[in-house]
């Protein structure tokens, strides 16, 4: 016959046994990180290049930092080049250049040129095509974020451009933006953060092992009363 004191002592170990198999809810179990929703879609400003003759439409774009300006090209072959206000039709060193890769005989070209606004400074633009005549001198100019006041206006820039007789293109390739084909899916973004802990394991076999182990302890103590 098992003594009463032994039974009491044995039963007192049950809470510790269950605590081993079932850790408390406020423990330090590592959970699999969940994806977070991204913010609103980026604002895009679309500019038609050459749709209405030798023009940028619109020719004035007010864009915030981080927003995109997408240039869509119409016949025949145009470009987007950045200059200083004081030097219209002359390419700015290290400035924006789309290159001449948008030649099309009708409709829009298959590719576009996208510039992401990095600051709120004015960006003066022109087309550097010189055939059959200089497009910049003909008034094919535009500006991103023009000054709110002062003499540096698009009208003044266009007037100065009309006094030139040629346009220059940068010697290098595309710069200050990217050429892409609309509708082409982009590569998925990499995760914004990394997880240093392992996810909590929750497989069926592990759960069965824990339950059967706990039931075994109960069975042992129940046999003591028989």
TrEMBL record:
Residues of the signal peptide: 1-19
Domain of life: Eukaryota
Residue stretches of biased makeup (Low complexity): 180-199
Keywords: Signal
InterPro entries noted in UniProt: Cupredoxin (IPR008972), Ser-rich/MCO-related (IPR052953)
Residue ranges, annotated region (Disordered): 159-208
Name the record gives this protein: Cupredoxin
């Amino acid at each position: 016959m098992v003594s009463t004191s032994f039974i009491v002592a044995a039963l007192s170990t049950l809470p510790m046994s269950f605590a081993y198999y079932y850790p408390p809810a406020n423990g330090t179990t590592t959970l699999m990180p969940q994806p977070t929703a991204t913010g609103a879609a980026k604002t895009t400003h679309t500019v038609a290049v050459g749709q209405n003759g030798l023009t940028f439409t619109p020719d004035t774009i007010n864009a915030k930092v981080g927003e995109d300006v997408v240039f869509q090209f119409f016949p025949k072959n145009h470009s987007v080049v950045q200059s200083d206000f004081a030097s219209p039709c002359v390419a700015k060193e290290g400035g924006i250049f789309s290159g001449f890769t948008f030649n099309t005989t009708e409709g829009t070209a298959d590719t576009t040129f996208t510039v992401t606004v990095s600051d709120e400074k004015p960006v003066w633009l022109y087309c550097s095509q010189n055939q059959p005549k200089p497009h910049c001198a003909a008034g094919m100019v535009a500006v991103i974020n023009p000054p709110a006041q002062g003499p540096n206006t698009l009208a003044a820039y266009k007037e100065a451009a009309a006094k030139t007789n040629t346009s220059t293109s940068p010697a290098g390739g595309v710069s200050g933006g990217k050429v892409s084909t609309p509708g082409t899916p982009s590569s998925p973004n990499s995760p914004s953060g990394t997880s240093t802990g392992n996810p909590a394991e929750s497989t069926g076999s592990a759960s069965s092992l824990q339950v059967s182990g706990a039931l075994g302890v109960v069975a042992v103590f129940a046999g003591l009363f028989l």
